[in-house]
Amino acid sequence: MYLFIVLGTMLVLPIASVAIETVLLGTSPNIIHIFENWFIFWALGVRLFVAGFRQIVQPSFTAKQIFEIEDSKAHVVVQELGFANVAFGILGLVTIFQPHWISSATLCGFVFYGLAGANHIFKKKNKTEWIAMVSDLYAAILFGIFLSFNLLKP
User: Fold this and answer.
1) What is the pLDDT of residue 154?
2) Contacts for 5-12 with beta carbons within 8 Å, 24 or more apart?
3) Measured in Å, how far apart are the chain's first and last C-alpha atoms?
4) How far is CA 131 from CA 4, 102, 137, 140, in A?
5) Among 82, 78, 73, which Cα is nearest to 63's?
6) Phi-psi region of 32 (alpha: psi -120 to 50; beta: other; left: phi over 0)
7) Rg of the chain on CA atoms, in Å
8) Which residues in 8-44 are b (16+ Cβ under 10 Å) and which e?
9) Angle at 135 between CA 90 and CA 22, to 5 degrees
10) What are the backbone angles phi and psi of residue 104, rounded to the nearest 5°?
11) Neighbour tally for 113: CB within 10 Å
């Protein structure tokens, strides 16, 4: 299930949203900007909001399945992570209605996913943590590309 959520929010749904916007709605040809908008919405907004909500209400999943921590004392820390994920998720969701927040959301996505991905690199990983690491680094790379394009805008 986790893999399907990650693939959906970080690949399938952003691409589908771009296709719908460009083909069916016939919007502008700036495909990088359109993909950035939808990637922020899905990968930062939906993915982190859903992950954060789950971490708040069911901290044992993240503690046990990703970090392999059995101690319930870790649940408080996982819930705090959930609060941060919900906050980032809301930022990503709001960019659809507030496009002038896109650069800020892109920077937050780059920093968050870059640090999270780097944090997974040197750990012994189970299958779930491998998925988290690869998807985090993939997101960080895309957010970095979007940032470079934003910095090159006149």
Assistant:
1) 65
2) 5/47, 5/50, 6/47, 6/131, 6/132, 6/135, 8/42, 9/42, 9/43, 9/46, 9/47, 9/50, 10/39, 10/42, 10/43, 10/47, 10/135, 10/138, 10/139
3) 42
4) 10, 26, 10, 14
5) 78
6) alpha
7) 16
8) ebbeebbeebbeebbeeeeeeeeeebbbbbbbbbbbb
9) 65
10) -65, -45
11) 26
From residue 115, give the alpha-carbon distance in Å to each of 21, 32, 38, 99, 127: 31, 24, 22, 25, 19
18 in Cβ contact with 41 (< 8 Å): no
Task: Please report where in the chains the tokens 């997974």 appear, as a residue.
Answer: 120
- The structure tokens listed for 53 are 């909500």
Q: Please count the CA atoms within 13 angstroms of the CA of 95 that sit on its side-chain side.
A: 28
58 and 43 Cβ atoms separated by less than 8 Å:
no
Task: Please count the residues of the chain.
Answer: 154
| pLDDT, tens only, 36-94 | 999 999 999 999 999 999 999 999 988 888 788 899 999 999 999 999 999 999 999 99
Cβ atoms of residues 88 and 48 within 8 Å = yes
